[in-house]
Design a protein that fits this description.
Strand order of the largest sheet of chain A: 1-2-6-3-7-8-11-12
Distance between the termini of chain B: 77 Å
Helix content of chain B: over 70%
Distance between the termini of chain A: 81 Å
CATH class of chain A: Alpha Beta
Structural class of chain A: alpha/beta
Number of helices of chain A: 15
Largest sheet of chain A: 8 strands, mixed
Oligomer: heterodimer
CATH topology of chain A: Rossmann fold
Order of helices and strands of chain A: HEEEEEHEHEHEHHHHHHHEEEHHEHH
Order of helices and strands of chain B: HHHHHHHHHHHHH
Number of domains of chain A: 1
Radius of gyration of chain A: 22 Å
CATH superfamily of chain A: Alpha/Beta hydrolase fold, catalytic domain
Number of helices of chain B: 13
Largest interface: A-B, 74 and 100 residues
Helix content of chain A: 40-55%
């Protein structure tokens, strides 16, 4: 055996612990000195609210060149300000600059009282009210619907139920084919006992969902917090980091009945692809989606893998349908520099071409 | 504490003292081996390990002091994302330093290219490494169910005073074994499962006879639910032991792979990493290994079973609470649920009526 003396270097230990201590104090001083972190900075006007749901209209500084209004629908499981995280990384701002007239539906934070809120409520009641409000207030029979992540799934189902109200459908990193096992959430959800979960909690706490998300890459999360210690002198970088942290930790609870149906009918029985999905007594038939479709997916998406998103184009009835590959990951679609430069103009161009 | 500067100065002073102690310990360590590095007698080796323990003990004290200091600092920070992030940073730094304890014995031997994994095994304490992994996976903990278990045991003594001697015996036995569950690491899952079997056996012997007593009305339902929770808790812990086995096993195998990689580097005379680089290598290797584990059907099935077992306990416990509180003037959860359901249905009806009214008004306006 090797003599243990050769294994030790107290000086290295002192140096390392001392350096870390300094960095931690530095982190404390930096974070203590920062004020409130602003997210979702693009000005918007509240048009109506119902229960926890709010419909906003984004203010635009320039000219609206695409008259058909665009309604953004984000996921229930995260907050929509990811699309408008900071002024220089705002998908919303870029879409506005491209001349689109933008609205967003904010699902809010369900409380214990929302245990019985169902998929039917979200689609046939809240989303439908939002769409109708925009149609009536803008005098357009049909609106453009842009769904993001789980919001894309909701938008797709809604469009299949009310195709007459939607002019163009855009889905971004949207799970459709839940039979895949490429993403961990898809694999894990298949074995989940959704009934037991909803019966025990009523409303699924955001912390429960966060624990699941943290399990996706626990060691990368650890590295992230160690790496950021090196950047404490760079105020801009720290503020950007905090904005993303704010979004990551801001996970709303999930209304029980909606969560139950989403897990059982989609993750476990894949009814969007196989058929048989019923929402509020209405049969969801994907072939009823006949309007133009732009389906955007991220090639390196580990949360919603391409195998879950791309099949949408095969099951809709649309003749005009396009699959758009974004080279990047799930979050990069909205916040990466490449996305700012590339994605918003591509979406706007596609919509302008189908405005009449 | 007056302000952050005062605190910082005090803290620096304490740090300097800790560092001084460390350096002295390091000198003692070196002196104890001077001129006898080739002797390798049992006494020398024992002394070295003792000093290693002393050194790690001091490191642990430092880490403890650091945690206390930062807990105090956090209290001064207003709530919000800054505080949340700082909490995560401190927690990650703690893990970073816990891993550093495993790096310490490596450093010198890697620099001198004398490292070999067999020797390192002497310093690799699985129980300590478990602490590192527990920090990483801090969000997976049976803690809340342990609390339920404790409460139910107390409750059992209240609802079934005649059975106190049996419950006490079972409680003590189960507690003793339940504590052991959390101490198992990787390859000890067999022992964990045996402990689970023992608890079930004790349960059968101690508590089942109570259910054979004559019916006692509402009390009987309470007792049945109580016993059901007690029975399910060891079952849950049994699942948890299997889950731990998968988790810790993957961690340990990854560490072994990293050591094998270092041994190859030494053999190839390659450049040796510093701690920062070691940490990155370790994090990346674990990220990869755990992704592979998480992506297996075995893991997915087991974690779902674990979750279900936990939810069953929660459900029974909630029911038990309701039965207990039923005679008191408090609103129960099931009653609130009924209320929520009624409100939900009423809201829908109002919404439908409003829509019908709007449609009717619009039709009237057109006419």
């Amino acid at each position: 055996m090797m003599p243990p003396a050769r294994f030790f270097d107290p000086q290295a230990a002192v140096k390392e612990t001392w350096a870390l201590s300094r960095k931690l104090v530095n982190a404390y001083e930096t974070l203590n000195g920062l004020g409130q972190i602003e997210v979702g900075a693009t000005p918007k006007e509240l048009l109506f609210e119902c229960d926890t749901i709010k419909l906003y209209h984004y203010q635009h500084e320039g000219r609206i060149t695409c008259k058909v209004p665009v309604l953004l629908a984000y996921a229930l499981v995260n907050r929509p300000y990811m699309l408008d995280l900071q002024p220089d990384r705002s998908f919303v701002r870029h879409l506005l600059q491209q001349g689109l007239d933008l609205y967003v539906i904010d699902w809010g934070y369900p409380t214990k009282a929302d245990k019985y809120r169902s998929l039917d409520d979200y689609l046939n009641l809240y989303l439908n009210d939002g769409v109708d409000f925009i149609r009536q207030s803008t005098n357009h029979d049909r609106v453009n619907l842009m769904g993001i992540c789980q919001g894309g799934t909701l938008s797709t189902i809604y469009t299949a139920i009310f195709p007459e109200k939607i002019k163009n459908l855009i889905t971004i990193v949207t799970p459709i084919d839940f039979s895949t096992n490429d993403g961990l959430l898809f694999r894990w959800s298949k074995n989940m006992n959704a009934d037991a979960l909803v019966d025990a909690y009523g409303v699924i706490p955001g912390d429960f969902l966060n624990a699941g998300y943290m399990m996706l890459r626990p060691f990368m999360k650890l590295s992230k917090y160690i790496d950021i210690l090196e950047a404490m002198e760079d105020r801009e970088k720290i503020e950007n980091f905090l904005r993303m942290e704010q979004w990551l930790m801001d996970t709303p609870a999930q209304a029980g009945e909606c969560y139950r149906q989403f897990v059982k009918d989609l993750y476990q029985q894949n009814k969007l692809v196989k058929g048989g999905l019923m929402v509020g007594g209405k049969n969801v038939e994907m072939k009823r989606i006949t309007m133009p479709l732009l389906n955007i997916y991220a090639s390196d998406d580990h949360i919603v893998p391409p195998s879950a998103t791309t099949p949408l184009n095969d099951i809709v009835g649309s003749a005009d349908k396009q699959l758009y590959t974004f080279e990047g990951g799930h979050i990069g679609v909205f916040v990466s520099a490449k996305s700012q430069k590339e994605l918003a103009p591509a979406v706007a161009k596609w919509l302008h071409e189908r405005a009449n | 504490m007056e302000n952050i500067t005062d605190f910082y100065n005090e803290w620096l002073k304490a740090q300097k003292q800790t560092m001084k102690n460390w350096m002295e310990a390091g000198d003692n360590l070196r002196q104890s081996f001077q001129g006898e590095t080739k002797a390798r007698d049992a006494e020398t080796v024992k002394r070295a390990f003792d000093l290693h323990e002393t050194f790690l003990g001091m490191h642990k004290s430092w880490a403890g002091a650091m945690n206390d200091a930062f807990a105090a600092m956090l209290k001064n920070l207003s709530t919000g994302i800054g505080r949340e992030t700082l909490t995560n940073i401190f927690s990650s730094a703690e893990t970073y330093m816990k891993l550093f304890e495993f790096w310490l014995p490596l450093y010198k031997s890697l620099q001198e290219k004398t490292f070999d994994p067999a020797s390192y095994q002497q310093f690799f304490a699985p129980a300590r490494y478990k602490e590192v992994l527990d920090k990483v996976f801090a969000f997976i903990s049976p803690g809340s169910f342990q609390e339920i278990f404790d409460q139910v045991l107390k409750y059992l003594e209240t609802v079934a005073p005649l059975a106190q001697s049996q419950t006490k015996q079972f409680a003590e036995f189960a507690q003793r074994h339940a504590e052991r569950f959390s101490g198992f690491l990787g390859r000890d899952s067999e022992a964990a499962l045996q402990a689970y079997e023992n608890i079930l056996d004790a349960y059968q012997k101690s508590l089942d006879p109570m259910l054979k007593l004559p019916a006692m009305g509402k009390s009987r339902e309470n007792l049945e639910l109580t016993l059901s929770v007690l029975k399910k808790y060891p079952a849950y812990m049994g699942q948890f032991a299997k889950f731990q086995n998968l988790m810790y096993g993957a961690g340990q195998k990854t560490m072994e792979k990293i050591m094998a990689d270092f041994a190859r580097r030494v053999k190839d005379n390659a450049t040796m990493p510093g701690y920062d680089e070691f940490f990155k290598l370790w994090a990346e290797a674990n990220d990869h290994a755990y992704h592979e584990l998480f992506n297996t059907e075995e893991f997915s099935t087991l974690s779902a079973q674990l979750q279900s077992a936990g939810l069953e306990i929660r459900r029974d416990f909630q029911r038990l609470l309701e039965l207990t509180l039923a005679d008191y003037p408090v609103v129960l959860r099931s009653e609130m649920d009924e209320l929520y359901k009624t409100i939900h249905e009423l809201k829908k009806r109002i919404h439908d009526l409003e829509n019908a009214m709007r449609a009717s008004s619009a039709a009237g306006a057109k006419r």
